[in-house]
Design a protein that fits this description.
The protein is of the alpha/beta class. The protein is built from ten helices and 39 strands. A hairpin with a 2-residue loop joins strand 2 (31-32) and strand 3. 45% of the residues are buried. Uridine-diphosphate-N-acetylglucosamine (UD1) is lined by residues 12-15, 56, 58, 80, 83-86, 88-89, 112-114, 150-151, 165, 167, 181-184, 210-212, 238.
């Protein structure tokens, strides 16, 4: 907590979110760009390094509390058992802190758990204006094209100052025509907030304690009520249903892609490219169409990913190329390649210049520098040495039905096509294996492993056993002496 930090940020996230029509997930746990709605609010709040970071939870509180503990341990969950309104929610938070002997002094920021486009920068601007103007309360407002459903900002005709906020359901027709709305985000003087909340009644259309009533209460008591108008109303959009959820995801994605492009990343088709908030990159990375970068995925300098790729928590090295690939928890080294049609699962690690080719699945395995698995293979729980080539259609048979076992293939090996490596098994450096082999025993360095039945040919079998077929006709034609071809000399 620095000198300018607020004493507390209170994130309101107890509401039912009925318009999401979700039986499984509380509204604030729905995701946008790799982070829950409440996670976005907490992340923005954390940028202010507040003394206390409180999230008020209620609806499906066990799920929300568990999520916060797992992903945002810096936030403290406070339960509002019954959702009696936004004023009641803030009062519950402050009373819980007070009961723990935490007396707030300075600024309290109140924000909502359902506005994922709201940034730490916007909260900082609000807190800055609040302090600078010496306000008792400062509200973040926005002028919106469609104010329906929001609280409207009533301004004093004489001085233009905020006089009150009136909710949609309590508003007159004239008030409903106002297009400046309450974002639901405020900066308060802590002491004044406690006093004002004590005066809030439930005398309104919804029978709730409205936090918004504190503005009129403070103004009447002679305190300054300020407002900061958001430069872009889209920054404060709240999510109430899944249509708004998709809209917010699109807006946030556009913001993330723009940031990437300004940092030197080529995004060929922003319309079909999706980034999560934690994605990172270096200049000259190229993202081809229909590509999703999720979690902590990182793109190295000059790497190229896509088209049609989904990469989660995956590191792509400088100059590497990954196409038509699904990857999760993988590492693709410098100048390495994967795809088209590769599946890199957790623990797949490709060293520099390694190659995982077409229709190849790799799990929990390391490929050494320049090692190649070019075609149609499954590599699981394996170590493949540098410069080794694994033949097409090979499988590390890693699972005996109970336990997993490792396959170790040394450096500069050439394993034949259609090999089964029955793990645990080790192929020494520089060894070869024959095509079609089932490799059950270790192959020593420099040796050739062969494990397959001798071939025998039964002459004339088709003409005897499949007479009259086109195969038999072709065989008969092949058996006739070739037409006379005059020879020279
Ligand atoms: C609220 C504001 C409105 C503003 C709008 C912005 C009030 C009375 N109204 O209206 O002026 O324009 O937000 O989106 O404040 N919550 C609780 N506990 C409760 C009730 C709500 O934690 O008892 C939380 C909700 O989870 C939500 C936030 O507070 O995150 C706002 O509640 P919501 O019911 O969505 O309020 P609105 O009617 O949208
Ligand atoms: Ca709302």
């Amino acid at each position: 907590m620095s000198a300018n930090s607020p004493a507390a940020v209170v994130v309101l996230a107890a509401g039912g979110g009925t318009r999401m029509k979700s039986n499984r997930l509380p509204k604030v746990l729905h995701e946008v760009c790799g982070r829950s709605l409440v996670g976005h609010a907490v992340a923005a709040a954390e940028e202010l390094t507040p003394g206390q970071l409180v999230v008020v939870i209620g609806h499906m509180r066990e799920k929300v509390a568990e999520h916060l503990a797992a992903h945002h341990p810096g936030a403290r969950a406070v339960v509002q058992a019954e959702q009696n309104g936004t004023g009641h929610a803030v009062r519950t938070a402050l009373e819980t802190l007070a009961a723990d002997g935490i007396e707030l002094d300075g600024t309290v920021i109140v924000t909502t758990g359902d506005a994922p486009l709201l940034t730490g920068g916007t909260l900082r601007a609000l807190a800055g204006a609040h302090a600078e103007q010496g306000n008792g309360v400062t509200v973040l407002t926005a002028v919106v094209p469609e104010p329906f459903g929001y609280g409207r900002i009533l301004r004093d005709e004489a001085d233009g100052a905020v006089a009150a906020i009136v909710e949609e359901k309590d508003a007159s027709d004239a008030q409903r025509a106002i297009d400046e709305i309450n974002s639901g985000v405020f900066a308060f003087d802590a002491k004044l907030l406690v006093g004002a909340l004590a005066e809030v009644t439930t005398d309104n259309a919804q029978g709730e304690e409205y936090l918004t009533d504190t503005l009129e209460i403070l103004r009447r008591a002679g305190h300054r009520v300020g407002a900061v108008v958001a430069a872009d109303y889209r920054d404060i959009l709240g999510i109430n249903d899944r249509v708004q959820l998709a809209h917010a995801r699109r807006l946030l994605n556009d913001r993330l892609l723009e940031r990437a492009m300004r940092a030197g990343v080529t995004v060929v088709d922003p319309a079909t490219t999706w980034f999560d908030v934690q994605v990172s990159y270096e200049p000259d990375a190229v993202v081809l169409p229909n590509t999703q970068l999720q979690g902590t995925t990182h793109l190295g300098e000059g790497s190229e990913v896509g088209p049609n790729s989904t990469l989660k928590d995956t590191r792509i090295g400088a100059g590497a190329r990954v196409s038509n690939t699904t990857a999760d928890g993988a590492e693709v080294g410098e100048l390495a390649t994967a795809g088209p049609y590769a599946y890199l699962r957790p623990g797949a690690r490709l060293a520099r210049k390694a190659k995982v080719g077409t229709y190849v699945e790799v799990k929990n395995s390391e490929l050494g520098e320049g090692a190649k698995v070019p075609h149609l293979s499954y590599i699981g729980d394996a170590t493949i040495g540098e410069g080794t080539n694994v033949g097409a259609a090979s499988v590390t048979v890693n699972y005996d039905g109970v336990n997993k076992h490792r396959t170790v293939i040394g450096a500069h090996c050439r394993t034949g096509s259609d090999n089964m490596f029955i793990a645990p098994v080790t192929i020494g450096d520089g060894a070869y294996t024959a095509a079609g082999s089932v490799i059950t025993n270790d192959v020593p360095a420099g040796g050739l492993g062969v494990s397959r039945a001798q071939q025998r040919n039964i002459a004339g079998w088709v003409e005897r056993k499949r007479p009259g077929t086109t195969s038999a006709q072709a065989a008969a034609a092949a058996a006739e002496p070739a037409a006379e071809v005059p020879t020279e000399g």
